[in-house]
Amino acid sequence: MSAAAPLAGVVIAVDGPAAAGKGTLARRLAAELGLPYLDTGLLYRATGRRVLEGGADPRDVLAAEAAARALTAADFTRPDLRGPEADMAASAVAAIPSVRAALLDWQRDFGRTHGAVLDGRDIGTVVFPEAPVKLFVTASAEQRAHRRWMELRARGVAADPDAVLSELRARDAQDSSRAVAPLKPAADALTLDTTALDAEAAFQAARALVAAKLGR
Length: 216
Fold this sequence. Notes:
Strand order of the largest sheet: 2-3-1-4-5
Low-confidence stretches: none
Mean pLDDT: 92
CATH superfamily: P-loop containing nucleotide triphosphate hydrolases
Radius of gyration: 17 Å
Largest sheet: 5 strands, parallel
Order of helices and strands: EHEHHHHEHEHHEH
Number of helices: 9
Distance between the termini: 6 Å
Strand content: 5-15%
CATH architecture: 3-Layer(aba) Sandwich
Number of strands: 5
Number of domains: 1
Structural class: alpha/beta
Shape: globular
CATH topology: Rossmann fold
Helix content: 40-55%
């Protein structure tokens, strides 16, 4: 499997909790396979940020749905889509059925046009349940919190490690317990635990799983 032999039309679903490494992994898989890449979390982050910017509560159904339907390409390049506030706002709007409905067709159209690698929390269970390859990328809460803390520190954002862990666990609980499209692996997903893996080792492991699944 190499960039010289692209896979046209194939959809690969990469799901998992925050800071498990799924974004970096999915982006590299897309480049390797010659497929478009979509971080679906940006749709919810941008929606949550729009709601906050308007002075509303991300749990406000009408405000969140209006924000989702008003998204433009510029919303996805905002510099304030990462961090604890953006994380929790994204998780809150993602629990609203009308928000998910507003963004579902957009995600499906993206993937069906030329194929894609999409990462999120419900790609394999809701967005593309028919995807031929589904990965569920996970890691221990402690390791994920450490990664998030390192990421924040690298961006010059002061953060308390214990607070980061607490916020991550709260996000996990909110994502896993929501009534609509909760975070969980698809029944036929291949699980990849990255707790003890760096980015390169995680990519190589995922690359091998995808190659075996596609018979390449």
